Amino acid sequence: MAEIDRNAAAQAIDAFLRALGRDPDREPELRGTGARVTQAWADELLAGYRVDVDRLLADNVFAGTTDLVVVREIPVHTMCPHHLLGSSGTATVAFAPDKHLVGVGTVAAVVDAFARRLALQEQMGRNVVNALAAHLSPRWSACRLVLTHGCMTARGERAHGSRVESVAIDGNDAPVATIHSVLGVGK
Questions:
Q1: Each residue of 119-136: pLDDT tens digit?
Q2: What are the E-state strand segments in the chain?
Q3: Calpha distance 179→109 (Å, rounded)
Q4: 61-63 and 100-102 beta bridge pairing
Q5: What is the Cβ-side half-sphere exposure of residue 127, based on CA atoms within 13 angstroms?
Q6: Which of 20, 35, 91, 172 is deepest in the core (most CB within 10 A)?
Q7: How far apart are CA 161 and CA 1, in angstroms?
Q8: pLDDT at residue 45 greater than cutoff 90
Q9: Quick one: DSSP state of residue 45?
Q10: 73 and 144 Cβ atoms separated by less than 8 Å
C-alpha cells in the first residue's frame, strides 16, 4: 500500500466539507473532523491493505482433512468504492478440505482483510474463495456474503431493510446445490 499522507487527507476532507457549504473553522462540531476521518480511514476502514493475505494463509496452513469446514456469521464491515459508504453484515465461508486445513480464526481474518479495503461485495467473496483455493487446494471453497449497503439505505432508493446476498464458489465439479444448502443461501 502506498504511503498515506495524513495531512493532505485531512486537508482534503476539510476542503470537501467547505465545498459542501460547511466550514470546519466556524462550526465547532466540525473542528478536527478532517483528522478524525483520516485516522478512521487510514487505521481502520482501509486496514486490510496492510494485511498480506498470502502470508497470513501460508503461515497458518497445516496438514489434515475433514469432510467439511463451515465458519458462519463472520462480521463484515466494508466500504463501497462507488460512493464511499459503508456496507455491513455477515459472511459464511465453507470449504471441503483435501489435504490441508487452516484455523477458523484465520478464515475470519482473511474475510476481514478483504473487507477492510475499498471492495465490491461480489469481488470480496471471489477474493476469499480464490485465496483459500490457492493455499489449501480444497475440493471446493465458497463464500456467502449478506450485507446491507449504505448506498442503498442512506441515499438513492432508501431501501431500508434490504440485504444483498452474493455467493462465490471455486472448485471443479463443486456440488452447487449442496454448497447453497450449507451456506444457507436464501434463508
A1: 999 999 999 999 999 999
A2: 61-63, 69-79, 86-96, 100-102, 140-149, 164-170
A3: 22
A4: antiparallel
A5: 22
A6: 91
A7: 35
A8: yes
A9: I
A10: no
